[in-house]
Write a structure and sequence with these properties.
With 224 residues, this protein is of the alpha+beta class. Helices cover 46% and strands 17% of the residues.
Length: 224
């Protein structure tokens, strides 16, 4: 009888410990997800992005707006990349929509798709944004500046101006500056619609997944 009582007490204690641990963990994760990144974290992230752009493009980069219309056969270009490396055009299919347009090139880095900034996204996320654009797709891309091009070309004279690479970290602000400076084709869709946090369903799924992992590890630690 004493053995059964001790066993039941231990079982109840373990059950309460697991319940409290999971409840506290869920509360903390939900609180952090709702709070979002702090100003210091955003500043550090922006500095890392600026440094990366300078490493890739140097001090100057060329930007261009590319507008493509899907004729039903697809846009005929592929993208690769991750959050830290940026989303880059891997290839342009010969004879496709992008190839016939002539502006999009292999190696171009995507900065905006429509009104959404893709800086800090991976290729899979950028592909989801592309699929939601419909038949007409507007891209803001960046590439290394030509060696013979003059920085800060005359106002309104170029649809592919040369800009400081540090400005690429904020594509929305970049387009606004170029539009105010008089460069053609820039400034459209300057309302930032980039999602600031994952949808609630994604947050809840990650919470439940994390809780299941911790419960499994906790059980193994206790009973095996």
């Amino acid at each position: 009888m004493r053995r059964n009582m001790c066993r039941n007490m231990c079982r109840n204690m373990c059950r309460n410990m697991r319940r409290n641990m999971c409840r506290n963990m869920c509360r903390n994760m939900r609180r952090n997800s709702e709070r979002g990144p702090t100003a210091r974290n955003r500043q550090q992230r922006n500095l890392k992005i600026v440094d990366y752009f300078r490493q890739v493009f140097g001090e100057w980069a060329q930007v261009e707006v590319v507008e493509l219309v899907n004729d039903g056969s697809g846009l005929a270009f592929g993208i690769v990349g991750g959050r830290s490396s940026g989303v880059v055009v891997k290839s342009v299919l010969p004879g496709g929509v992008a190839d016939r347009d002539g502006r999009l090139r292999s190696g171009d880095m995507l900065l905006r798709i429509g009104a959404v900034s893709v800086v800090g996204m991976c290729a899979r996320q950028a592909a989801c944004v592309l699929r939601q654009c419909g038949a007409c797709v507007r891209l803001l891309v960046a590439r290394p500046a030509p060696s013979n091009a003059a920085p800060l070309q005359s106002l309104g004279a170029s649809q592919a101006p040369i800009v400081p690479s540090r400005l690429l970290a904020d594509p929305l602000d970049l387009e606004r500056r170029l539009a105010e400076a008089g460069h053609d084709g820039f400034g459209a869709l300057c309302e930032d619609t980039t999602p600031t946090s994952p949808p609630p369903t994604v947050i809840e799924e990650s919470l439940h997944h994390r809780v299941r992992e911790l419960l499994t590890a906790f059980k193994k630690k206790l009973w095996f």
